[in-house]
Specification:
73% helix; mainly alpha; homotrimer; globular
């Protein structure tokens, strides 16, 4: 029986893979290219985190991420034309993934004894770096650097994790608080189109 | 005296470096930029693999890869205008490199005790990731995501390696079978222009 | 009290972060995106070096790099319109950073027992790889592959380091010689617009 966290992990991985595969299909990639972009979106952030932390990436010990990406590809091949009508569902799934990946990244760093700023960086990398690599591979400027709040939700979740942890709250509750803060921040940001200020270029700043 | 595998390794590295340097020259890179792109094409895949496997990249213990890339640069500077007439030769060299790099990647992973899906991933990374970094550096969408079968040849070679290994065949024969399957797949794919299906975009899928 | 090297390190980090943040602002990134690009420019080279050397990246043990990038972002937000008049100051700061980062990269590799070609590679990566990642993230062809001598200054500094070290010169003097050679090469290259030859494309080479 998979645990609740494993189910969330599967949902998040699936949603991240779908986001990569959809963007790859818009660029007319072949099935293999779409699979690679989907996989990188799903596991890229966690892999960079694990390399930095000096531990073996999760997908090298459990094939579930490769299988999950394969199912995501199959889904897009079979039901691609309906995906556009499932926009809201995938937005919720993607936000679940963002929340869970952040919590996993922060928790792993803390359990390895890293200080809080590293934990917050690792949570944000886990949540958002896969999407950055995805955008580099499809030769676009990374979306998260310009659109509404995304990686900042990870930073906020990381800060909540740290404070809740400092207060001596029980581990499961800490994770729930942190994950919820990521999820809620992300949903509110999209609902109310909350963006960070654009950094003005030098010619405009006069 | 270099061994047969070392000669193949040199040929493959040279061919991979040439492919990077030629694309860099089309973008009007300077000699240094061309060297870097050539080097990354040749050693990028193996470096990512070794970082993931937690071992020291090969080029950090043997300068042959840096020297070989230097020779490739010299070759392009001196004989650049004849390269276009040597297209078939370089295609064969490149396919040899692809086959050898895949076999090395799969073999290294298995000898370190990783499961078969990791070994296949590592074989494919060794063969194809250098070309992906090359294309990112010259700011193009990676070729292997859209053109005829390339990285899929590595996957096929990895699967052959695994099965032959499971059957208890002797190590050298396993490597020959695996490498040949990569080489033949690649040559047939180009000869008959075998492509994977393009993933249809949402607007076209209606 | 910070040491002289720590002050140079701060100046270099600040200048590298500013260069990333300015390019991000030209692409209309938001504050978060600009911070990420600035951070990657400042710490990207050292991080790749440390992953290859198998040691923990410096920014994971000391938050100064994250803070320094934050100050650089604040600086651009507040004084962005004056930056263009400080062009020469930032060029000098950037060259100091390039020199120091090279020296640190070469020194770290030698102290870990790596051979000279690895040390020169690591010095160049420390100095120049951050700028390459920066350019990939803003979706431009890396500047250092085409404009006046930049990473070659790191290579020269690495060679000077190695020779001075071989001659048994005292460590501090070795570092001064190496750093000065990077700085002077870079300043002369810009002052006299010294470029490496462009690698001719195949169609032009006839």
């Amino acid at each position: 029986m998979p645990t609740f966290v494993q189910i969330l992990d599967f949902i998040g991985t699936f949603a991240f893979a779908i986001s990569g595969i959809r963007l790859a299909s818009a660029k007319r990639f072949d099935w293999f290219g779409a699979y690679v972009v989907g996989l990188v979106t799903a596991i890229g952030g966690g892999t960079i985190r694990d390399i930095l932390l000096g531990v073996t990436p999760g997908w090298m010990t459990d094939p579930i991420y490769l299988i999950c990406t394969g199912l995501a590809l199959l889904w897009v091949i079979l039901f691609g034309k309906h995906l556009i009508h499932m926009h809201n569902t995938f937005f919720i799934f993607d936000s679940i993934g963002l929340a869970l990946f952040t919590v996993v990244g922060v928790g792993k760093s803390i359990s390895l004894g890293y200080p809080f700023w590293v934990a917050i960086m690792m949570g944000s990398l886990t949540g958002a770096a896969g999407g950055v690599i995805r955008d580099v591979l499809i030769n676009e400027i990374p979306l998260i650097f310009r659109k509404e709040i995304y990686a900042m939700a990870c930073v906020i979740g990381g800060i909540f994790y740290w404070f809740a942890n400092l207060l001596g709250i029980e581990s499961v509750i800490v994770q729930l608080i942190s994950g919820s803060s990521v999820f809620i921040t992300r949903v509110l940001a999209v609902k109310y189109q909350i963006c960070l200020p654009i950094l003005k270029g030098e010619e405009e700043a006069e």
